[in-house]
Amino acid sequence: MEFLKTQMSGFTATYRRELGAYFATPMAYVFLAVFLLALGLFTWEAGRFFDSGVADLQPFFVWHPWLYMIFLPALAMRLWADEHASGTDELLLSLPLGIPGLVLGKLLAAWTVAAVGLLLTLPMWASVNFLGSPDNTAIALAYFVSLLMAGAYLSIGAAVSALTGSQVTAFVISVVIAFVFTAAGWPLVLSTVQSLFGTGFADIVARFSFITQFEGAQRGVLELRAVAYFLGFTATFAFLNCLWASRQRLG
Amino acid sequence: MEPAKRSISEGKKVRHPQGMLEVRALEKSYGSKQAVRGVSFTVEKGTVLGFLGPNGAGKSTTMRMIAGVLEPDSGDALIDGKSIITDRRAAQAALGYLPEGAPLYEDMTPPEFLRFLAEARALPRRGRRDAVDRAIADARILSVSHQRIGDLSKGYRRRVGLAGAILHDPPVLVLDEPTDGLDPNQKRAVRALIARMAPTKAIIISTHTLTEVPAMCHRAVLIDRGRLVADDTPAGLARRSEDGSLEAAFSRLTDQVEDETL
Description:
heterodimer, A: mainly alpha, 15 helices, B: alpha/beta, Rossmann fold, four-stranded antiparallel β-sheet, 24% strand, globular
């Protein structure tokens, strides 16, 4: 318990600082505006929200993995790379803190901004209720799993950000990693994998894909497997983040 | 913990047992380059130690190891008796550190920045406001309290960094080039601040402006290529040159090492 307390020291201070940094600069606002614009555009134009004739949010949720893949690394890329570039990491490391507290504080701050983004899509939920009578439990569930999935994407971005002093490099590498984990469940990729390595291997690949894990939630099914997957994924990358951030001490 | 009474540096003076900062044989290599090779010295309470040396001599690397930012390959630093290796957090709590170039969070105002540090350092909740107010007053940055750090001049930024280092009133201060890049007035202000704090703290200051050493420091250590080449009072150091100037002593002592290695 005492160990946990020292490791997590600095969590609150870091969380508050990072959240403040997002909203003290135009960053969070620009992110939210563009994210919502893109989500709306995809839902209405590409997802044909009105043409489906069914009052549900299926055409809305289906785009989440793809948009997260691009937008969340952009949100996370500054978390560590910016500290490194401005030299403030030296200041942080000279404080009597535990690295896990810093890592989780930063990750949770970015996660909060993503949650605000999701919260701002609630009018969409309200309008399907206005248009018809959707399964609201299913929608709430999809929102919940989508938020967990956002954490997994952010953890990639945050961890990679600790590896490099450049935000652009961090962004590009994170998107590539996020693409691998997203596209692994894409039928186009899966059929190729299947023809090359057989059905068994394709199944394993599909199981590690965000799209596959998110599918159940989109249909309104709560799969504990998916919840465990996203949480476990986030924890794994947060752990890597700790390792990569402490690497700084070795010089 | 009782600080060890052993003195390694030069071995000629008997150190006061109340050594607030004790650096023991620190070593650090980057790949094949040995940045710091066995630097040892002790700083007592009430002493301002000038940390001198040419660029790339290992000053910043040594200071970063003392601050716990960089892990030494071997050796140790005791801050107020606590080891930076085995008891890092306790040692860091007793230390105020101003990194080279005074990096700061530009999107915050000085009071926001200091409040962040107070919270991160887990200062008692009730004392935080006082600590922040005192640091702002001591560093003379009240007039810029409402501006974001990114908009401040270099002199003010340096003072905000200093305010951060003294916020928790630590017994040991490690300041990496606190006056670098400041105009003469700003330098005087920083020197005055250091002089005010000197009686109750052990302070190390790195600088390559030699003219301010006699005015600011009680003692000076000179390092070159990662080794300690002199540990003396500024006057004693100056006497080692032909013309009695610190500058001549500096170049003689550091060139000497260069000749030896050539």
